[in-house]
Amino acid sequence: MNAPNDTQFVTQHYIDGRWVDGAMGGTIAVVNPATGAHLTDVAAGTAHDVELAVASAARAFRAWRKTTGAERARYLHAIATAVEARRKRLAILQSLNNGKSQQEAHMDVDDVIATFRYYAQLAERPDDATGEEVSIPSTEHRARICREPCGVAALIVPWNFPMVTTAWKLAPALAAGCTVVLKPSEITPLPELELASAIASVSLPTGVFNVVTGTGADVGAPLVAHQGVAKVSFTGSTGVGQTVMKTAADTLKGVSLELGGKSSILVFDDADLELAVELVATGGFFNSGQMCSATSRVLVARELAPALLARLVERAERIVVGDPFAPGVQMGPLVNRAQFERVRGYIEQGIADGARIVTGGGRPAEVPEHGFFIAPTIFADVPPTSALWRDEIFGPVLCVRVFDTEQEAVALANDSEYGLVATIVTADEARGERVARALEAGVVWVNTPQLIYPQTSWGGYKRSSIGRELGPFGLAAFQEIKQVLTRRQAN
Ligand code: NAD
């Protein structure tokens, strides 16, 4: 399939039920990372647009909060259906703007659909509306716990999984009865605005859903600081997450933060070699390694290390890198020049720090000249003090180290300021369980790829997260808890 050249893009804000240009009229250029070509310009929002969007969401909240869970569930199902109808187009825009392969782009759209369907089911739970009876040691009183929407929610998302990170916030926020202002990443607004257009097509009440595009400084910061916003749900880098949390403290609003990671895959001596190779490759190179959950630290038992490394190099060199719309392409470019330069900087630093590069490191052959491509890269003997080992690189770069004991493997994995995810590959079920419990990570996969079901949980330990998304936790993030204690009437 070739890149479509007749694509019409949505480029405006969606505020108070209407598509509008920004109050100040500025725009931001959007680029195709596979070719460096200019795709279009989208509205560059300002504090004034934020003001209009928050005011609209606040007005809408008065009625939306009183809707029943069943009514909200109908809207969520309608959104899932509208997204299903645009599946192909959303996947095209995702590949065009973010650079990910068409297969991965379709997986993202399917995740969005599953997330809206799941939260539609949760919205219908009767307990949240009427309150849940709690058993107390009193015959005179009746106690209930009610869950109510917390108010206007600001949803701020990154570029690496734009639609998925949006759905993980938007679906539970709407299910809870919150109204929202979404701020997509300024780097990947196109799939987000198409998603917004699908959402707009289901005719939610005016102001329930608003989108303001623009930079973090011009839109994100005023949104976080706004007195009318009750909750900020943010996914992005740890540094910006810290700024968000500090700013939110001024108005004492709640924050949920999904931040960076530096995660490990632990391959034990009894592991199935082919399974291990597959899980290491996908854990490191999916989405060109631009994953908060990339298992970019590869810890392998000494006995298995030579065989694993040899097979891994072979596997990495077989990955077809190129324009996502070219036939057979499995891995696309990095998202932009800044990200490309950053990853190249880490590769050079790694070599200077004494790590041994065993494959990749540069631009692959036969990729479009102006695209931001880096070949799947593997380092061995990576010093545990090096930036390559400790920092989130956010590119297709794996770092391999050997271990001699289970304790050493766990200690190496836990020796990180992050604690998002981990993968374990072993034939020993008891060891899988023991190591999973010992790891400081919010998600652990044992002998399985990085599958994420909306029914479960998402988020990590340490500097990776504050709070959890998905599952009932994702809904609770947008709810206030109210206790109602009633004295029983004498009959
Ligand atoms: P980023 O922090 O640069 O930007 C994220 C969002 O915040 C963007 O929309 C940006 O415009 C906005 N922003 C920037 N400055 C802001 C400010 N001062 N106030 C409010 N908003 C502001 O992150 P990125 O480069 O877009 O994304 C990559 C990062 O996201 C990586 O660190 C990755 O690990 C993380 N991430 C985490 C998860 C997770 O679930 N834990 C998922 C995806 C990405």
What would you say about this model in short?
About 40% of the residues lie in helices and about 20% in strands. It has about 500 residues and is an alpha/beta fold. It folds into 2 domains: about 15-260 and about 465-485, Aldehyde Dehydrogenase, Chain A, domain 1; about 265-455, 3-Layer(aba) Sandwich (Aldehyde Dehydrogenase, Chain A, domain 2).
Number of strands: 22
Q: What portion of residues is helical?
A: 25-40%
Major sheet: size, sense and barrel closure?
7 strands, mixed
CATH-level-2 architecture of the largest domain: 3-Layer(aba) Sandwich
What spatial order of strands do you see in the largest sheet? 14-15-16-13-12-18-19
- What is the name of the CATH superfamily of the largest domain? Aldehyde Dehydrogenase, Chain A, domain 1
Helix segment tally:
16
What CATH first level of the largest domain would be assigned? Alpha Beta
Mean pLDDT: 96
Essential attributes:
alpha/beta, 7-stranded mixed β-sheet, 491 residues, globular, Aldehyde Dehydrogenase, Chain A, domain 1, binds nicotinamide-adenine-dinucleotide, 6-stranded mixed β-sheet, 16 helices
Task: Provide structural commentary.
This protein has 491 residues and is an alpha/beta fold. The protein folds into two domains: 266 residues, Aldehyde Dehydrogenase, Chain A, domain 1; 190 residues, Aldehyde Dehydrogenase, Chain A, domain 2 (3-Layer(aba) Sandwich), CATH 3.40.309. Helix content is 40%, strand content 20%. The protein has 16 helices and 22 strands. Strands 14-15-16-13-12-18-19 form a seven-stranded mixed β-sheet, sandwiched between helices. The chain has a six-stranded mixed β-sheet with strand order 9-8-7-10-11-21, with helices on both faces. A three-stranded antiparallel β-sheet has the order 5-6-22. A hairpin with a 6-residue loop joins strand 5 and strand 6. The chain starts with 12 loop residues before the first strand and ends with a strand. The mean pLDDT is 96. The protein binds nicotinamide-adenine-dinucleotide. The site of nicotinamide-adenine-dinucleotide has 31 residues, from helix 8 and helix 9.
